[in-house]
Fold this sequence. Notes:
Blueprint: H1 2-10, H2 16-35, H3 47-68, H4 81-103, H5 113-139, E1 143-145, E2 149-153, H6 154-174, H7 181-209, H8 224-245
Antiparallel strand pairs: 1-2
Helix pairs in contact: 1-2, 1-4, 3-4, 3-7, 3-8, 4-5, 4-8, 5-6, 5-7, 5-8, 6-7, 7-8
Amino acid sequence: MLAAWEWGQLSGMASRQQRIWLALICGLALTLMLFTLPPYEHNAHLPQVAGWLWASLAWWIAALLLVLFYPASAALWRTSRPLRLLFGALTVIPFFWGMMALRQYHYEADHFAGAWWLLFVMFLVWGADSGAYMFGKLFGKHKLAPKVSPGKTWEGFLGGLISSALIAVLFASFAPLSVPTGTLVICAVISTLASVLGDLTESMFKREAGIKDSGSLIPGHGGILDRIDSLTAAVPVFACLLLLVFQTL
């Protein structure tokens, strides 16, 4: 709901009342979706969940094109609030279902299996961010997306990918994930690419909205979306790859 509130600002909702309604509607919609599923059956093979995960994959491919061709691509959505709200829905709702699908992974056999997967994705994104920051500071010379986020470099991007691959190998070796190392590394690297895209996409929308942070909920760190922008892409993409593409469920 907080993420929906902040996305309202990115969508051009200047009115506080409008953003409150948006957050309430989003929360109600997610609650109603949960009630359509049987208990402990939030797995990716269910149509309600799989549909959102596939939609997320399609959205992030589209977002990649928007980022690559920004600012020219902004002409397609800059003046359309419904379209920007749709982008928000495709960002927030699949993120929710991705977390639910991963958390319910083999739940009946092992109540903590899904927790390991969520922990893995979070470590993956945080580790990639740290690797990108260090590589960028030490070697960064070539801008990754100067029109969207001038601080990011190709060297940092490469450092993030290397970090994610190492994290995947370490988790495959020491954590009870029961997935082949090669599969895990592929999912990890692609999800890291998605996490970078999630960050760049939010930066693009903030740039268009003329704001530095998505909110002010966390003093000194911006809003909720500023903290989870990478995860909003990485989680559903990882869940889609792991549970639907490689069918490890």
